[in-house]
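Me: I hope this is not a bother. Any chance you could explain this protein sequence and its C-alpha cells? It all follows right here:
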Amino acid sequence: MPPMVHCDLKPSNVLLDDVMGACVGDFGLAKFLHGYSSSSGIDGSTCTSLVGPRGSVGYIAPEYGYGSKISTEGDVYSYGVIILEMLTGKRPTDELFKDGLSLYKFVEDSFPEKIGEILDPRMIIPYYGNRDEEEAGSSSDQENHQIAAGIMGCITALAKLGLLCAAETPKDRPAMQDVYADAITIKEEFSALQG
C-alpha cells in the first residue's frame, strides 16, 4: 500500500483519546502517493501534484507554496511545527512572528541553552511547581532537581526534534519513521523520570 500524506496536520486535527493517545482526524486533503517505493522515493510521474498551496497557514510545508509535489516530508514539516507550538504555546501565526521572525526562528534562537525561557509555563509548572518552604533544602530537594534536569533534557530533545522536522528544505527533514523512533525514545525517558 502506498503511503498516505495528510496534507493538513495541525493541532485541531489531532484528537486525544481517553488515555491521551493522539488520533489524527480530518483526512479531507489526504492523498495516497502512488508510485512510491521506499528504496527509490517518489516517482514524480505518478504522484499527485498540489495545485496551489492547500492546507493551513503556518503548518503547510513551504515547498508547497512553490508548487512542489506532495510528499511525506510535508507532513514531517507540519508535525515539527506542532511540536514547536506545543512547547512554546505559540501558534505559527502569532502576531509575535513578523519581520522575519517565525516560530521556527523563535525556538532556534533559544536552542539549546535558553530553551527554558521560551517554554509555555504550563509545560513546566507541574514539574517545578510551587514548593513549600519546608520542602526546599530537604533530602528530596536534590532528587527533585535531578528529575527537573531530566525533564528539561527531554524537553530539549523534543525541541531539537521539532526543529529538525520543521527544517526549511525537505531534504533536511528526517523520515517519519525516524521521527517516530525519536519520539518514542523521548517518551520512554520522560516516563522513567515519572517513576
Summary: The two ends are 40 Å apart (CA to CA).
